[in-house]
Amino acid sequence: MRNQKNYLAKNHYSKGIKASNKAIVNLFWGSIFTILPSVLCLITNSSGAFALPQITLPSPTPVPTPVPPNPIPVTPVRGATAYGNQISLNGRIVSGIWFTKAASKSQFTTHIADGTLRQLIGVDLLDTNSPTKQPIGWFSSYVKPQILNAKLIGNYRYLDVTRLASTSRWLLTVQGNILTIVTPTAKVTDIRETQLAFPQPPTNPQTNPVPRVPISGKALTINLDRPTPWVVRQEAPAKRVVDPDAVNPQPTAPPGREWTIILDSVADPALVQRYTPVPIPAPVPNPAIQLLKQLPLPLPLPKPVPAPPTLPPVPEPTIKQVEVINNQTLVRINVPFGFAPRIQPNAANSLTVEIRPDALVPRSIAWAPGLVWRQQWVNLGQEKFPIVSLEINPRNVDIRPIVTNPNTLIGTAPLIQTAQNYLAVAGINGGYFNRNNRYPLGAIRSNGQWLSSPILNRGAIAWNSSGQFYVGRLTLEETLTTSTNQRLPVLFVNSGYVQAGIARYTPAWGSTYTPIIDNEIIIVVQKNQITNQYSALKAGETPVPIPADGYLLTLRGNASSNLSFLPVGATLNITSSKIPPEFNRFPNIIGAGPLLVQNRQVVLDAKAEKFSDAFIAERAVRSGICTTATGRVMITSTSNRTLGAGPTLAEHAQLMQLLGCVNALNLDGGSSTNIYLGGQIIDRPPNTAARVHNGIGIFYK
Q: What CA–CA distances, in Å, run from 537 to 35, 374, 541?
C-alpha cells in the first residue's frame, strides 16, 4: 500500500479485511469522529491533537535484538541410542527428525519421521487403516508395496527405515544430533515425453450428452540406473512477455508455473545438452526505423497493407532445462495454469511425471489413533474440487489456539514453524490478521484468556477439553465501570482493528503498546487503578510499557470526551459477556468467518459479517474447520477446481456440507491456507504457504 501518513496507509490488511467494505473516516480537531457500521478499514486524516495537557511520554523501551530461530524442537525419545533434528543427505545438511534404537548388542534400527521421508527422500505414503503399519511407494511396486512399522512418539510419526535402507544400500552413521545418509551414486539415463488425454464429462448429461473436448496433458518418464532420493519444488508463476508498445497489453491466459524436480543423481551429458536452452540474441536496434518514428507522418496517410495471416503461437516445451548442480540433476518443467505434476517413483527405477488437471492422488491414511488424513475429489455440480482434510477424534487430543510468539501478539511466521515450536502434532491456519504490521484481526481466546477480541460479529468456533464445540457468530461486550459509576463501553481487546472509542491492551499484546493512529490518549491501569495518562500525537512512535499487573486503555476519536471520567487515582472495574451466551461455556475460541454451516444447514451471510462483495464473489483456496455428526472435528483445505480457481464462499459452504459437516466455519484462505501434520505441510508445496499470525494446534494427550 502506498506510503501515506494516515493510519490506513500504514495498515495493509489481510485478505479478510482488505476485501471488506471501506469508508473514509475524517478526524478533525474537536469535531465528530464519524463511524460507518460496515467499515473495515479506517482512514484518519488529521494533523491536530486532543485537548489534553502535554504530558511527556516515557522513554522508549529498548527493542531486544532479534534472536535467530532455534533448530526444529524434537521431543526426546525414550530408549533411543541417539536422536536428532538434522540429517546429512549426501553431504547436504538439512532439517530432519530421526532416532536410532538398539535391536541387539550389535544391531540398531533407524527411524525417520514420515514427513522427513516425504520431503527429503520422495517416499510416497499409501493408504492404510492401521496407524502402526505404513505402506510406501519408493521405486517399488504399488500393488504389493513395502510396509514400514510406524509409531507416534511425541509430535512426530516415525517409520522404521532399517530394511528400506539396507535394500537400497544406504550408508547410515550418527554423529551427535546428525544422521548421515549416503546413497549410492545414481545416473539419469534418459527422459521420455508422451501425450496424455483426459476425457471430460458431458456438459449436461440430461439435455446435452455430448462430451466436452478432451484435455491434453503430458507425461514424462525419467529413467535412472538405480533408486535415488528426489524432491519436487514449485516455483513462482511464469512471467509473461508483453509487447510494451501494444495498447493496454494483456496476457491472453493465466500464467503457468515452473516446477523443478531435483534428483540425487548426475544426468548423462548428452541429456543435459539436449535440454539446454539456446540463448536468443537480443534484437539490434535499427537506426533508420528509430529515425522514422521521430518524423511526422505524410498526409494523406497511405492505405494500410493487409497483414499476413498470423501463425498460431508455438507452445512452450514441457521440459525447460536439464542441468547438473552439485551432483544433483535439476529437471525444470513448464506446467500450464490449472495443471500440476503427479509424480510416482516406479519399480523399474524410473520416475513418472504426469502433468494433469487432477494431480491430487486420493488417499486415506490412519495416521494416528483417532486421526485420519484424507485426500479426495468432491463433485459440486459440474465442478471437481480437491480437498485435503484431517478428521480427528477430540477425545484423543487437546486442541489449542497457537500464535507466532507466546510473548507477544505481534508477528507472523510459517505455520510449520509455529506448530513445531509448540510441539503440535497437527494444525491449520486460523483467523485474519494485518499483513503489514502483523496485528490480529479477530477472536483468539486461549484457556479462558482473551488474547484478541472478536470483531464485526463474525463467525467463530469455540471448544473445551471435553471435546464439545460451538460454532456461531460472536460479539464480545466489555464494559468499564468507574468509581463514580460511569459505564463506558470497551470496543476491542488487543486488536489491530481500529474504530473511534475505547480499546484495551493487556500484557498478552506484549511488553509495550505503540500507538496505532495519531492522537491517541493512553491511560495506564495497575491493579484496577489509573496511575498515569499520556497524549500520543504520532502513530508508530514512542512505545508505552504495558503493566504486568494491569492494562492500557486507548481513547481514540471522540472517546477523548470520556477523559474527565478517568482521572489519575480512579478505580475501575471491567465486566464482559459473550453474545450469544453459548460461547460463555468455552475457554478456547478462534474467530474468522464467515459462518458457513449451522445445524447441517448452509447459513452463509457474509454481508452480515461485513465482508465486501468482492470477497464474497472471489474464487480462492479456502481453509475451514467443522464438526461432524459422529462427534469428530475436521480441518480442511480446498484447492483450485479442475482447470480453474478455488471455490467461492458459497461453494465452500456447500462443499463442507457434502463432507458431512454439521457446523462449519471459513478460516483465513488464499496463500494463508495450509495444514500441518507431523513436520510437514500436506496440502500444498511448503514454499508456497504464506506466513500467518495464528492457527489451531492439535496435541496428543
A: 21, 53, 9
Q: Closest Cα to residue 642, out of 212, 333, 315, 240?
A: 212
User: What is the mean predicted confidence (pLDDT) over 221-242?
Assistant: 86
What is the identity of the amino acid at 296? P
Sign of CA dihedral 632, 636, 641, 646: positive
- Which residue do the cell numbers 512452450 mark? 316
Distance CA 122, CA 344 (A): 9
pLDDT tens per residue across span 1-28: 333 333 333 333 444 444 443 333 333 3
Closest CA to 698 of 440, 450, 408, 367: 367
Q: How far apart are CA 175 and CA 497, in angstroms?
A: 50
Length of the chain, in residues: 701
Q: Which residues contact 289 (CB under 8 A, 6 or more apart)?
A: none
Residue in the structure block whose three cell numbers are 474440487: 385
Strands (E), 140-185: 146-153, 156-160, 171-175, 178-182
Helices marked H in 95-217 — which ranges?
A: 114-116, 162-167
Strands 444-446 and 371-380 come out as unpaired
Tell me the per-residue pLDDT of 515-550, one tens digit each, with 9 for 90 and over: 999 999 999 999 999 999 999 999 999 999 999 999
Q: pLDDT tens-digit profile of 559-569? A: 999 999 999 99
Band (270; pLDDT cuts 50, 70, 90):
very high
pTM for the predicted model, two decimal places: 0.85
The three cell numbers locating residue 565: 471520567
Q: Per 3-state DSSP, what percentage of the chain is helix, strand, and coil (rounded to 5)?
A: 10, 40, 45
